[in-house]
Amino acid sequence: MGKLARVEEYVLSLMLFQMGLSGFLQVVVRYGFSSAITWLDELVHYEVVMLTFFGASLGVKYGVHIAVDVTKMRVRGGGHDLLDAASSLIWLLYVAIVLYFGMRLISMMTGLVQYTPTLRIPKHYLYLLVWLGYGAIGLRVAGQLFRNLSKIFDRRQRRL
Amino acid sequence: MTVLTLVVVSLLLVLGVPISVVMGLTTILCLFFFTTIPLQTLFQQLFQGAEYDLLQAVIFFIASGAIMTRGTLAGKLIRVGRAMVGGFHGGLAITGILSCMFFAAISGSSPATLVAIGTIMIPALIRNGYGERFAIGLLTSSGTMGILIPPSIPMILWGVVMGVSITKQFMAGFLPGILLGSVLIAYSYHISKRNGWKGSDVFSWKEFGAALRDGIWSLFMPVLVLGGIYMGIFTSTEAAYVSFVYAMVVELLIHRSLKLKDLVPIFKESVLTSAMLLFIIANASVLSYYFGVNEIPNTVAESLTRFITNKYVFLFLVNVALLVMGCLMDIVSALFVLGPIFQPFLQKFGIDPIHFGIILVLNIEIGFITPPFGVNLFVSSALTKRGIVEIGRSVVPFILLMISVLFLITYIPWISLVLTRFVE
């Protein structure tokens, strides 16, 4: 799992680098040759989508998602874990709903294939990308919930 | 219906659920219970929300800011400032403010500006006999100018929400930025003179020339990036790419302050920061879709305009509400909800959305340094190894100064709008 996360970090970082260079190349091409590499432009658009959802999944691991911490700062110890567990449960509920309706949309779209303008990628493949991103978020949040619950459970047992 | 939604939102926020999830989940519940719209559309909206063109500008201004923060660009800027004003009363403090302003003109983020300049300037000020509380408060507050002086990430986001020209929005930030900087400089001069804090530097053309030569690549950056935007050479998205590549080339090849392997953690950090923002944006776009379909902003506006009949009262109330909100949460992520809600008011009272954008940005800035949740307070605490309470106390006079500037800018739209006439 740790190795997979490392690969994910490298892939996303490398992608950022490539997106940056591609964007710069577009500026040069547009300014120097009054032209545009349309397929590259389209690719970068989809990479932004990937970065958003897979990056958000990585963000769960590093705890970067902004939340209002008023309550968290007031409670300590066990209450903290309970709050985290409740928050993770709500995350999971949200992810589950998005995954369910996302899959319905994707399976509906496989029947009527639409292609993207330049790269000719079937549109539902792109939606699948978002779906997988949400899947990754779900897995991470589930892992967090599991760790939280086992902490709460351990504490209970120690008290007994 | 509205009350029920508000209760659910508050409950989720209090539980500590991330803001992005609160937005997404609330929309799902509203779509499900109050409309007949199929929930699949939500998924399409999420995709479209993340695909928006200007988001590339957000990502690459974040990334170039991260590169510059780790490199030596900031140090070279400080050397130029010090050579210029280091000998005056409060000279070193003024150097700190000027360096923040200049760094703000190449970076679009407040915490990045604080890290880049504060890391060097806070210890330097203390070493040179300036009061510790003053030094910490000054840099923590000056760092916030990162988002007022263009380029600015919140301004790009505001442009996305309101559909205003980013070039004009950027231009509108210049004078307010200079005004705020001047107020901070005047205050620092006054305090330093009273306390006898004077720099030991003596102005010399030789040192000034050497500092300029050393800092030429840093100094050229805003000329390239902002000049490029205003001369119509490139769009703000393209400017972000240029600034990303420029920062990399300067730090890797010219200053040689970074090695290729140093880029990996910088990119990782940029991926995380951008993804966090983009994920909020994707979810917010779902929420604004729901708002649009149900004309929620108009309903809210209609019910509130009965109480708010005057433009000046509206602006006053907005500022008070935002200052309170800024203490409790990050207003940047709230922009997407606030934008559509404010829009009918702006139309009704004839307030220019670009002027309003500057008011919002200043409120966000103040929110960065108001306890207990100001981001810059945490950054400063990490930089100086001092507690949040101590840092919170050090920024109090600066918060008051910034609030007075906020009210000037709110009630004199000219300050924000005069320069926007010169750009298309």
Report on the structure:
The complex is a heterodimer of chains A (160) and B (424). Chain A has helices spanning 2-33, 38-62, 70-74, 78-111, 123-159. The longest helix of chain A has 37 residues, at 123-159. Chain A is elongated, with a radius of gyration of 21 Å. Chain A has one domain. Chain A is mainly α and 160 residues long. Chain B has one domain. Chain B is 78% helix and 0% strand. Chain B contains 21 helices and no strands. The two termini of chain B are 43 Å apart. At the A-B interface, helix 1, helix 2, helix 3, helix 4 and helix 5 of A face helix 1, helix 2, helix 3, helix 4 and helix 12 of B.
Uncertain stretches of 5 or more adjacent residues of chain A: none
Strand content of chain B: under 5%
Rounded radius of gyration of chain A (Å) = 21 Å
Distance between the termini of chain B: 43 Å
Rg of chain B, rounded, reads 22 Å
In brief, what are we looking at here?
Chain A is mostly helical. Chain A has one domain (2-159).
